[in-house]
Amino acid sequence: MKRGILYRSGGIKVSIVITAFVCMTLTLLVWKKAPLVAFLIPPDRLDVLSPATRMEKPVGSVKDEHEHSSTDRTLSSGTTLKHLNGEKPYYVPAVAPMTYSRERSFEQQKDIKNVTKLHMVEKGCNYAKGKWVADNKWPLYSGFECKQWLSSMWACRLMQRKDFSFEKFRWQPKGCEIPEFEGSEFLERMRDKTISLIGDSLGRQQFQSLMCMVTGGKGSPEVENVGWEYGLVKAPGALRPDGWAYRFPRTNTTILFYWSASLCELEPLNQSDPVTNYAMHLDRPVTFLKRYLPRFHVVVLNTGHHWNRGKFQANRWDMYVGGKPNSDKKLAEISNARNFTVHSIVKWLDSQLLKYPWLKAFFRTMSPRHFVNGDWNTGGSCDNTIPLSSGSEVSKNGSNDPVVESAVKGTKVKLLDITALSELRNEGHISKYSIKSSTGISDCLHWCLPGIPDTWNEILCAQV
Ligand SMILES: *[C@@H]1O[C@H](CO)[C@@H](O)[C@H](O)[C@H]1NC(C)=O
Ligand SMILES: *[C@@H]1O[C@H](CO)[C@@H](O)[C@H](O)[C@H]1NC(C)=O
Ligand SMILES: *[C@@H]1O[C@H](CO)[C@@H](O)[C@H](O)[C@H]1NC(C)=O
Ligand SMILES: *[C@@H]1O[C@H](CO)[C@@H](O)[C@H](O)[C@H]1NC(C)=O
Ligand SMILES: *[C@@H]1O[C@H](CO)[C@@H](O)[C@H](O)[C@H]1NC(C)=O
């Protein structure tokens, strides 16, 4: 959006700025008095205000006190480091809580040395097509146990929710088998490697899911917080860092998440203004990705739910192209802007893959929302609790996120297409069961964990 077009008159501009400032001040006052106000803000907005969001805003903007993830507390305490300094780091194999008996088509699954070969065999598989099948071995970790990695705002087992049948399905791709996920086998395969997820709150869900999957949800004091190696440290006054990075010492595997809702480079237009707008460079990848790409072995990008007018205004993003404010009216339409950005980033990433041949790059497609009878702010809900009541199978060929699909086509960037398979799972959202759900607002955007993002990771891990 180009403000110049919308607000030609300086007078209007000034009054809008003043109004915005007054609103901001009031919001902050109310917030300070009653952090619970967070629960009056629809879930979709929470990530505008949230941690992650901080990095898209000047330091010291809205704090987000509504969530104290146990992750932060556990890992900032220093126990991990002391532990590591005091004795030889050890690793408790991340055996999933239950034993598996799922029929395997690959006997050599247990033979770690052969797993690489196994994954080559799977290469021709289209993971996006297939069906959900009931599997009593799921979920892969417990929503009660995985407190170290799982934010309480996403742990539906800690909420009022009573139905958990949605946890008991796995994805069966058509014509091939996903190797059963096993944490220690995965880490072995990822020895000395760094896996990086970059994106919005749905990307953060995928990150937390992966941490729980790899550890089997068990407490893992040996895991080292290495956020500082990636500049992921909490700024003074901020509640949380811009992302998290953890290392499993036995295999020297690093898994990290960086919050970037748009994947664009953001540049404050006025450094000294605490409520500055940002130049959102549609044609420049976010700085974190550019800076640290040479260190990554697997990178998974996503962007989707912030591409709407409300989010642009809340984040104070002004579109820039070629280093200048965008003047192309067609591109200013947000769906075109997302398409342009996704194509730009994939093109850039593809060019980088020549320099870093060890790198596997994925672009995850859009995670679907399931609001019915309204949107997040108009009483929309997702009350269905019966799994797969609208079908269990995906048989169509193309992706339901044609923007990402077309962007990766002809490049070495892989499509992590989870849109259609997740569309079948409208019962898997947080729904009306947020930790303190007294507001009647449903979250039909984020997923319960354990839940659907575990399957995204299973599909991802089958391809790395
Ligand atoms: C891989 O598996 C095959 C048969 O499944 C076996 O003959 C071979 O020795 C295994 N390779 C290694 C390196 O263990
Ligand atoms: C751990 O892995 C990183 C690559 O991610 C590598 O640079 C580093 O040398 C490894 N450290 C050890 C002790 O092997
Ligand atoms: C930048 O922000 C500061 C503080 O709000 C303000 O005083 C200054 O005039 C702004 N500069 C420009 C160029 O707008
Ligand atoms: C998306 O962008 C690409 C590259 O700029 C362009 O070729 C394509 O037509 C666009 N698709 C849509 C649906 O706008
Ligand atoms: C889907 O793709 C497969 C293989 O690429 C092809 O054989 C099949 O005809 C396609 N189906 C449809 C409905 O387009």
Automatic annotation (TrEMBL):
Alphabetical GO biological process terms: plant-type secondary cell wall biogenesis; xylan biosynthetic process; xyloglucan metabolic process
Membrane topology: Single-pass type II membrane protein
GO cellular component terms, A-Z: Golgi membrane
Domain Trichome birefringence-like N-terminal: 124-177
InterPro entries linked: TBL_C, TBL_N
TM spans (from-to): 12-31
Region (Disordered): 57-84
Keyword vocabulary terms for this entry: Golgi apparatus, Membrane, Signal-anchor, Transmembrane, Transmembrane helix
Ranges of biased composition (kind: Basic and acidic residues): 57-71
GO molecular function: xylan O-acetyltransferase activity
Localisation: Golgi apparatus membrane
Biased composition (Polar residues): 72-82
Keyword Acetylation recorded: no
Pfam families in the cross-refs: PC-Esterase, PMR5N
UniProt domain Trichome birefringence-like C-terminal: residue ranges: 178-462
Family of the protein in this entry: Belongs to the PC-esterase family. TBL subfamily.
Name of the protein described by the UniProt record: Trichome birefringence-like N-terminal domain-containing protein
Organism: Dioscorea zingiberensis
The organism's taxonomic lineage, starting at the top: Eukaryota, Viridiplantae, Streptophyta, Embryophyta, Tracheophyta
